[in-house]
Design goal:
Length: 86
């Protein structure tokens, strides 16, 4: 009678240990996925920030160019000729 009980206890212990290892493995996979998702999100935010900065810079340059052209046109109307700075 003792042998079957001992065998059952060993199986139960092994089963619990296996279950604990599986839970730990699943938790590690979950954490790895969370970290990967966070890195992707940060990369995307950084890419969007850089894109917006490039757009803002291009708009500012275009505005400056238009202002220089308009200033040159107004100078021509008054008889003065102004050249944009280089």
């Amino acid at each position: 009678m003792a042998a079957p009980l001992l065998g059952t206890a060993v199986i139960m212990g092994a089963s619990r240990s296996s279950a604990r290892h599986e839970v730990a493995r699943q938790e590690q996979l979950y954490q790895n996925n969370q970290m990967a998702n966070e890195l992707r999100r940060r990369d995307e935010e950084d890419r969007e920030r850089r894109t917006q900065a490039a757009i803002d810079e291009a708009i500012a340059k275009e505005r400056q160019r238009v202002e220089q052209v308009q200033a040159g046109e107004s100078g021509t109307q008054t008889g003065r000729v102004e050249f944009p700075p280089r």
